[in-house]
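tool=predict chain=A
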Amino acid sequence: MSIYTVCQKSVVSVTPDTSIRFVADLMRGKNLGCVVVAAEQKPVGIVTDRDLALRRDRICGEEADEAHVSTIMTREVCTIRKDTGIFDAIQEMKSSGVRRLPVVDAGGRLVGLITLDDIIRLLARELGEVARIIGKESPKI
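tool=predict ok
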């Protein structure tokens, strides 16, 4: 199963010159943990709720809300190709130390977002299905 089959396809993205205030309001209003920063449909960064909490005032000072999101985004954004398998996505998250990966097509364009929570929900459903099958096949006591 490829990561694209389980990723979120409606990804909220902004451009690098979007204000931090706008991004914070967007994340709060839509209850998002991150926003992908993209230029020409390609991820160039990612901003998480943690970035907003820890970097905004320290990096931008008093003008933080009006500063561009590019000042606080994580620039070395790890991405994953949409045809990557789930196990490989888990390995990438583990080795990169991230909980979210923008999903890109062969041209590097943003097509989705996979989070650790998405993968945990998928694994929980699969384990539930296995338990149901085992329960049906188990002898009745």
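The helical segments are 20-30, 49-60, 86-96, 116-137. The CA atoms of residues 69 and 89 lie 27 Å apart.
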